[in-house]
Design a protein that fits this description.
Layout lengths: L3 E3 L5 E3 L5 E7 L10 E9 L2 E10 L15 H15 L11 E5 L5 H8 L3 E6 L2 H14 L7 E5 L2 H5 L8 H9 L4 E5 L10 H19 L22 E7 L7 H13 L2 E5 L14 E8 L2
Length: 295
């Protein structure tokens, strides 16, 4: 049973699941508008506490209209994994900073964790409403002691149809960092994004091509351990995909179709062992994969 208590800042506190706490505020003046409840969630990581504004709950906004306004289970799984990964490393030099590209960042949990660890973060989404909360959440949780943070609107189909993708602001920013070290894909594979799956595969290929070109200028590549303790090739971004099974939204055939697209593009999905993910047992329907290039 969910236990709640009064928070000292005036909201209800959900203490049903640690290390997470949910705060809710009800504004009586907005009770007739359908936007009366504002929710914040505080989550504890090795890098510190993250407080996210989840927006205003409303029956008018469905998950299919604005999926970025919800905090999905893959965001937790991904964040716990990268937090644990970086918490076991010593980062005392500028050269150890990763460049993290978050595709479909939503409320920004993964981006906030990466920034708290001092990484350079490029956080993107295509939903204008999500971008507002994304900017607010990253501003709230990150200070000058963290890595560089930027936020961009990014539509996968539109960017892959550009004549010169290097002129896109995201790719322009990646140029100065030597390409993306880590690409985060957190719960971005479901029925509503199906029309953009091919574009996502093309985008990953272009990100790899950019990194291969830029890494030629680097004498020493950043060490990036994979889940099996092998090194990520210097020419490749490390790509993490958090996927949640949604049988009401994604049929087994749809699921197979996406992973077939991955294989046909010369890549493979490698399962991250569940025992490598802190609190992973809480999110049984969510699986974490590394997307690797076969050659």
């Amino acid at each position: 049973m969910r236990s709640t208590g009064d928070d000292n800042r005036g909201g209800e506190k959900d203490t049903s699941m640690r290390p997470e706490t949910t705060y809710s505020w009800v504004n009586p003046k907005l009770q007739t508008s359908g936007f009366e409840r504002r929710e914040y969630k505080r989550i504890q990581f090795g890098c510190g506490s993250i407080l996210l504004h989840k927006g205003m709950a409303s029956s008018r906004v469905t998950s299919l209209q604005h999926t970025g306004l919800s905090l999905w289970s893959a965001a937790y799984v991904m964040s716990y994994y990268i937090d644990d990964m970086w918490s076991h490393e010593i980062r005392t030099k500028e050269s150890t900073k990763w460049t993290v590209l978050d595709l479909g960042a939503g409320l920004g949990l993964c981006s906030a964790v990466a920034a708290k660890h001092g990484m350079n973060v490029i956080s993107t989404d295509s939903d204008s409403q999500a971008l507002v909360l994304l900017e607010e959440n990253l501003r709230r949780n990150c200070d000058e002691g963290n890595g560089n943070i930027s936020i961009h609107v990014l539509d996968w189909i539109a960017v892959t149809e550009q004549d010169d993708i290097t002129t896109n602001p995201v790719f322009e920013e990646l140029e100065k960092y030597g390409g993306s070290d880590l690409v985060i894909l957190s719960d971005v594979i479901y029925s509503a994004t199906k029309p953009a799956w091919n574009a996502l595969i093309v985008l990953l290929q272009k990100l790899r091509s950019q990194r291969m070109r830029l890494q030629c200028n680097y004498t020493a590549a950043l060490e990036r351990k994979r889940c099996d303790s092998t090194e990520t090739p210097a020419s490749d971004p490390l790509v993490l995909l958090g996927y949640t099974q949604r049988r009401r939204d994604m049929s087994p055939q749809d699921e197979a179709e996406f992973f077939t697209l991955v294989r046909n593009a010369g890549m493979k999905a490698v399962l991250v062992p569940p025992d490598r993910i802190p609190h992973g047992e809480t999110y049984m329907l969510t699986t974490l994969f590394e997307i690797r290039w076969a050659n």
